[in-house]
Specification:
This is AAA-ATPase-like domain-containing protein. By secondary structure, the chain is of the alpha/beta class. It has 22 helices and 16 strands. Helix 18 packs antiparallel against helix 20 (396-410). The longest helix has 17 residues, at 109-125.
Length: 525
């Protein structure tokens, strides 16, 4: 058993022993069906923390001859397949994490990868293999000696592509991968290739190193979609098991729509369950910086489009033009597609549209907007918490003041001439409220539809429920009166806590003076 050649099953054992573990072992059935076929090379390109490395450790444990994993898999979903032991621990496995090599070696990364793998191979085949030959020939020699094919796993394969501007290094790196996966020797020694990354395989002219790979991405990953991320059913099961509110979990972490399946970021869900607290756990500095970088390019009004998506709208995107390289982004569609692959946008393939997937991702945009060069929009976003506190404290003057700022911030982005448009602005103004509330627009209630209803989640503490009625060129008092007359409180049947009635009016005829007025009353049962 080595580190890079025929690793043990410690990684998968650690995953199984973790407090939060979801069985994804049926992925092995899909991989077994590809062994030594024309479909033996697969590339999984998903956002960070979506379970790619977990799967790599599981694949080690199943195929590697460096361990005995019979007991480890006997109580898994995979074991329901009568033939599940057929390929278990029967292959020579090479497992590389390119990011760890990049951190230490960069310019001579290829030589160091070969050096470390060869070192492991020497320990077992020193007397029978000529290690002076090229790398693919060494692997071929091991195969001829043992009669056992290789399963090659490369984690973060695109690390060099994403982090290097040295085109010569990138070219040499791709040629190295070609020798592993598409050389004449690999036709014989390779049983399966599994590579993971953030970006899909880079489109480079005259480079054919990886064009024999089937790709599974944030845009499309059927038939293995359910093995990466947590499904709705799995999250519901975990919430029941750990006595956590599913609706809050859904608001915070649901939203990635891949092949029609709603997928959750497994790292964020696990952290929320472990800490018993909903928070923004999925953060990566380099990816976070990409938000501001791409948005500030402002291709074809991208900044306004982002604001529209943050208010709940979807945006058409052509994903075909993206060259799978951050450094070549030169259009709105390419910037949006990059954000989809990074996990900062969801993608509805049926509608060919991008959207903000969940509240955790909205928080990342909030930080970007508050720290970037966003002018009044950044200032408005920064006052969202203050607006919610002012509403809860019945400070109607402060509410009107902050909504006035929101109006000034978004008036050039969101049409602002009717109550529906006003509700879009209010959605942005109450940007942080979804952390504690399920916000429903146009909710059936009493004798009509309440414009906005804030329903407290389990983690809302003593925060009250809120019903907001919006008016244009009328009065805030008339808005509150409509809530009472039409009995909109009926939308909260069964709710026993404090309830606030909020009327907001926008006066479009008020010239340069204050446009908004607000009235807040506590509902008397």
């Amino acid at each position: 058993m080595g580190i890079y050649f025929n690793p043990g099953n410690e990684s998968f054992l650690q995953s199984k022993n973790s407090r939060i573990y979801v069985d994804k072992t049926e992925l092995i059935n899909e991989l077994n069906s590809r062994l030594s076929t024309d479909d033996k090379c697969i590339a999984v390109s998903h956002a960070r923390r979506f379970g790619k490395s977990h799967a790599a450790g599981m694949i080690d444990a199943y195929y590697s001859r460096g361990c005995d994993s019979a007991e480890l898999f006997e109580d898994t979903k995979l074991a329901t397949n009568p033939a599940y032991k057929k390929y278990m621990n029967k292959y020579n496995v090479i497992h590389l994490d390119i990011s760890s090599f990049w951190d230490d070696y960069k310019a001579n990364i290829i030589e160091k990868i070969k050096e470390y793998v060869v070192s492991d191979l020497r320990d077992e085949f020193e007397e029978n293999v000529d290690f002076s030959k090229k790398f693919s020939v060494i692997l071929m020699s091991v195969y001829k000696l043992t009669g056992i094919q290789f399963v090659i796993i490369i984690d973060e394969w695109d690390c060099v592509i994403r982090n290097s501007d040295d085109q010569n290094l990138i070219h040499n790196y791709l040629q190295f991968l070609h020798s592993l996966f598409k050389s004449e020797e690999s036709k014989y020694f390779l049983a399966l290739a599994y590579i993971t990354g953030i970006l899909p395989i880079k489109k480079i002219k005259d480079e054919s190193a990886l064009n024999n790979f089937q790709e599974f991405t944030m845009l499309k990953s059927r038939p293995i979609t359910q093995y990466y991320g947590f499904t709705e059913e799995e999250v519901m099961m975990l919430c029941r098991q750990y006595n956590m509110d599913y609706e809050s979990m859904k608001a915070w972490y649901n939203g990635y729509l891949i092949d029609g399946l709603h997928m959750y970021n497994p790292n964020s869900v696990s952290m929320a369950l472990n800490y018993r607290d909903f928070d923004s756990y999925w953060k990566n500095t380099s990816s976070f910086e990409s938000i501001n970088t791409f948005i500030n390019m402002n291709y074809e009004g991208l900044r306004d489009d982002i604001v529209n998506m943050l208010s709940g709208k979807k945006l058409y995107v052509n994903t075909e033009t993206f060259q799978n390289d951050f450094s070549t982004v030169s259009s709105k569609d390419e910037a949006l597609t990059a954000l989809i692959h990074l996990g900062y946008l969801g993608y509805d393939r049926e509608e060919e549209s991008a959207f903000i997937p969940n509240y955790e991702v909205k928080k990342a945009y909030q930080a970007a907007l508050c720290t970037g060069n966003w002018g009044k929009i950044g200032k408005s976003i920064a006052r969202c918490d203050e607006l919610l506190r002012a509403t809860i404290n019945c400070d109607s003057d402060k509410v009107a003041e902050i909504i006035e700022l929101a109006h000034e911030s978004y008036t050039s982005v969101l049409r602002y001439n009717d109550e529906n448009s006003l509700s879009c602005v209010l959605t942005m103004a109450y940007f942080t409220a979804p952390a504690y509330y399920n916000i429903v627009r146009e909710m059936p209630a009493g004798k009509g539809y309440a414009d906005m209803v804030f329903i407290p989640r389990e983690n809302a503490g003593k925060r009250p429920a809120i019903i907001i009625e919006l008016k244009c060129d009328k009065t805030a008092e008339a808005a509150v009166k409509q809530i009472k007359d039409r009995r909109y409180e009926g939308a909260l049947a069964g709710y026993k806590g404090k309830l606030l009635l909020v009327g907001i009016n926008y006066d479009s005829q008020n010239g340069e003076k204050k446009h908004h007025t607000c009235v807040i009353e506590e509902y008397e049962k």
